[in-house]
């Protein structure tokens, strides 16, 4: 659900996609409402996009080998705020 406020916390789930054709997949995501995001990645070989709600994800190049554990996404445990 879209909200009017800007993102105020870290992303709890981050997806990396590794298609056979990076450019074609980026174009497909852009056609279905994704947008490019500058997250300071510079000239990295991946493209950072965001869905309409602002959830960021990466589109990687197919020829970059990467360990499986870097592709698997998992939720982070939230630490409760301490009261004074």
Describe this structure in words.
- The chain is α+β, with helices and mostly antiparallel strands and 84 residues long.
- It has a domain at 15-63: 2,3-Dihydroxybiphenyl 1,2-Dioxygenase, domain 1 (Roll).
- It contains 1 helix and 4 strands, in the order E-H-E-E-E.
- It has a 4-stranded mixed β-sheet with strand order 1-4-3-2, with helices on one face.
- The longest helix has 10 residues, at 22-31.
- It is globular and about 35 Å long.
- It starts with 14 loop residues before the first strand and ends in a 25-residue tail after the last strand.
- The relative contact order is 0.26.
What can be said about this structure in brief?
With 84 residues, the protein is an alpha+beta fold.
């Amino acid at each position: 659900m879209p909200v009017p406020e800007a993102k105020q916390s870290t992303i709890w789930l981050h997806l990396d996609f590794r298609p056979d054709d990076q450019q074609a997949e980026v174009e497909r995501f852009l056609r279905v409402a994704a947008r490019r995001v500058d997250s300071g990645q510079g000239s990295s070989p991946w493209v950072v996009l965001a869905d309409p709600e602002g959830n960021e994800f990466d589109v990687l190049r197919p020829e970059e080998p990467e360990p499986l554990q870097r592709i698997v996404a998992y939720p982070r445990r939230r630490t409760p705020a301490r009261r004074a």
